[in-house]
Amino acid sequence: MKHKFAAVAAAAALSLTGTATLVANQASAAQHPDAGSRNRPDHLPPFAGHAYLVTVDTGAVYRNTFSADGTSVTGLTVKGSAPGRTFTVPDLAVQTGPKQYFISWVEPGDVTVSQVADFDKHTVEFYVTSTDSTGTRSGAVYHAALTQVS
Q1: Where do the structural domains in the chain lie, given as residue ranges?
Q2: Do residues 111 and 129 lie in contact, with contact meaning Cβ atoms separated by under 8 Å?
Q3: Would the pLDDT of 16 be above 50?
Q4: CA–CA separation, 46 and 14 (whole Å)
Q5: Which of 99, 111, 140, 142 is 20 to 30 A from 60 in CA distance terms?
Q6: Rounded to whole angstroms, how far apart are CA atoms 149 and 141?
Q7: Are residues 65 and 48 in contact, defined by beta-carbon separation less than 8 angstroms?
Q8: How far is CA 145 from its chain centroid?
Q9: Band of pLDDT at residue 103, cut at 50, 70 and 90
Q10: Superfamily name with CATH number, domain 2-148
Q11: Residue 131, number of CB atoms within 10 A of its CB
């Protein structure tokens, strides 16, 4: 059930970027043998144990460092709103294509990040939601370049 939800969320995130066809035939772990493969001890996602600079089209820059097993991310705001802000949280990752993963997490303050990272093309399409001071929840789609730094 968890993988089905993640696949649906990935499809929704991809549909916002106009590339939903990438996951149209990959709706569940049963249909895509690599989906959820991070749960197998002999297979780690390509981002596990590495750090990446995420340079957003808005000019913001983040450093995301993934744990050795790929199950958590430490984020650091390098440039943009709240430089120096850092957090470490669990993440969920589902493979959606060759060297392409839907990765999602919830940051402190209830900010959600849902992204499709393509480690071949070095790109990230992501959807971020947050609640403003009036209690209104909103979201936005962004595009970023992905650069491995460690």
Answers
A1: 2-148
A2: yes
A3: no
A4: 20
A5: 99
A6: 24
A7: no
A8: 13
A9: very high
A10: Calycin beta-barrel core domain (2.40.128.20)
A11: 12
For tokens 């001071």, name the residue. Answer: 133
Strands (E), the chain: 51-56, 61-66, 72-79, 86-90, 92-97, 100-107, 111-118, 123-131, 137-148
Say what the pLDDT of residue 43 is: 80
| Confidence (pTM) | 0.73
41/77 Cα distance (integer angstroms): 31
Q: Which residues of 20-56 are buried (b: 16+ CB within 10 A; e: fewer)?
A: eebbeebbebeebebbbbbeeeeebbbbeebbbbbbb
Residue 105, strand partner residues:
113
User: CA-CA distances (angstroms) from residue 149 to 49, 109, 119?
Assistant: 11, 27, 13
